Amino acid sequence: MARAQRADFARGVVNVEDPPLLAVCPTVVDPTRAPLGRHTLKVIGFQPYDLAQGPAHWDAIKDEVSAAHLSYLRRFAPNLTDDKILARVVESPLDLERMNPHNWHGTCHGGAQSPAQSAGLRPAPGWAQHRMPIAGLYQTGSTTHPGGSISGGPGRNAAAVMLRDFGTPIESVIAKGQAAPAK
């Protein structure tokens, strides 16, 4: 994120001129997600939850911000015209949080993805090794390293810690799985 965008974010200002966007088209690799010859597109705009007018202001501006995001995206995909868009779902960070309180501030990443909550500091300093203070209790999920999304990383990391604690390195489990005959 550019310096000006970080400043807007810190002030609670939505950037509609040069918004940081993530566009994902899952049907490129999985055509079963849409009718033949069609695609799905998910556009994620990285905007502040805490607006200068307060988070509730998202209810008033989400459609306007969505339209600005689409307009910006069309600079790079001019064939993304209204006649090609069959349906739209617009969800603000506030909507995402309302649907699932675990999507805190509209993120599915289990909290901030900032340096203060990354790597060995995730979910909190001293709690990043998947082992809990109670013997035999482990933690995993989007709040643990490396964080949310659909990576499987937190579960894999927790499994590696548990296997090590149980006396079996993860490498031997993987090797055993690779040597097993296909069914």
Flag low-confidence runs: none
Secondary-structure-based class equals mainly alpha
Which outline best applies?
globular
Tell me about the biggest sheet?
2 strands, antiparallel
* Fraction of residues in β-strands: under 5%
Give the proportion of residues in helices. Answer: 25-40%
Radius of gyration: 21 Å
Subunit organisation of the chains: single chain
Number of domains: 2
Describe the structure in your own words:
The chain contains five helices and two strands, in the order αββαααα. It has helices at 3-11, 58-74, 93-99, 153-165, 170-179; strands at 21-24, 42-45. It folds into two domains: 3-106, no CATH class; 115-179, no CATH class. It has a two-stranded antiparallel sheet with strand order 1-2. With 183 residues, it is mainly alpha-helical. Helices cover 31% and strands 4% of the residues. The chain starts with a helix and ends with a helix. The model has no long low-confidence stretch (mean pLDDT 88).
Brief overview:
The protein has 183 residues and is mainly alpha-helical. It has 5 helices and 2 strands.
Structural topology:
Blueprint: H1 3-11, E1 21-24, E2 42-45, H2 58-74, H3 93-99, H4 153-165, H5 170-179
Antiparallel strand pairs: 1-2
Key words describing this protein structure:
mainly alpha; 2 strands
